[in-house]
Design goal:
The protein has 329 residues and is α/β, with parallel strands linked by helices. It has a single domain (5-11, 60-103, 136-326), classed as 3-Layer(aba) Sandwich (UDP-N-acetylmuramoyl-L-alanine:D-glutamate ligase). The protein contains 12 helices and 14 strands. A 9-stranded mixed beta sheet has the order 6-5-1-9-10-11-12-13-14, with helices on both faces. A 5-stranded mixed beta sheet has the order 3-8-7-2-4. A hairpin with a 2-residue loop joins strand 13 and strand 14 (258-262). Helix 7 crosses helix 8 (216-222) and helix 10 runs antiparallel to helix 11 (294-308). The chain starts with a strand and ends with a helix.
Amino acid sequence: MTELYDVAAIGNAIVDVIAPADEAFLTSEGLSKGAMMLIDEARGVDLYSRMAPGVETSGGSAGNTVAGVASFGGRAAYLGKVAKDQLGDVFAHDLRAQGVRFDVAPLGAGPATARCLINVTPDGQRTMCTYLGASTELTADDVDPAIIEAARIVYLEGYLFDPFEARRAFAKAAGLARANGRQIAITLSDAFVVERHRGALMEFIETQVDIVFANEAEVCALFETPDFDAAVNALASRTAIAAVTRSEQGSVIAAGEARHEIWAAAVDKVVDTTGAGDQYAAGFLYGLANDRSLPVCGQLGSLAAAEVISHYGPRPQVSLKALAASRGL
């Protein structure tokens, strides 16, 4: 089948509310700095009422990634569930305006569109509280085979291992991709996802996945070791490509016996780290879908991550295609 998309992604469709916060606020609210926790709608309303004035922007890990792919000039599609409400309309408009195909029917009745309340401390660290809402209502019926079959790479969000119906959608997308010879990529998403679903994730990686994205905490959690190199080697033995980020230390790309250490692109000031891993994946996947070498894929990822941490919000504010061209990438 003709490849219509560089990347088709499936994930939790979430609107982010991003606000500055100090350490005292995190303590008073019982929030663990730098972590992500799931909350119910009532807790979300309560926390939102005490947060500082913030910025609302469409987010969701895989949604951020395909927005980045489109900013590089890539062809992208997205599968995720929003409600038929104001935030759902905002999410759909934002993604389509960035050139991403998104036509999953909204939920007519039931939970509201998901939102993530993100408190950012002065050092740029984000602490996230997520109400999953309508995003958990994604079902296998929402997975359009024509989109999956037409994508060179199918990108799956690890957060989907939590809701049962969403995991079925996840499995359907993976099965379609594998049956049609497409590459399958997954992001581990968060250490808490790894802790909750280690066995299922490991089995899925070993049997289905070609490319794994993780950060240092996630890969070490997956193999229950503090030894970063050992964890990377263990992951590389189970998948074709492992791309592991280490914040200011850059990233390591492992493919078979090969290892590529990638620099972290310079940034004048870290404002908000929300979306850094998502945009790293965007650059990497765009490069891979367009037959760039693994080191160049990593450099494109680092460049996109540096752009997004220089401002509030999880998606690029400039053309990543133009930015890459200016750096000779």
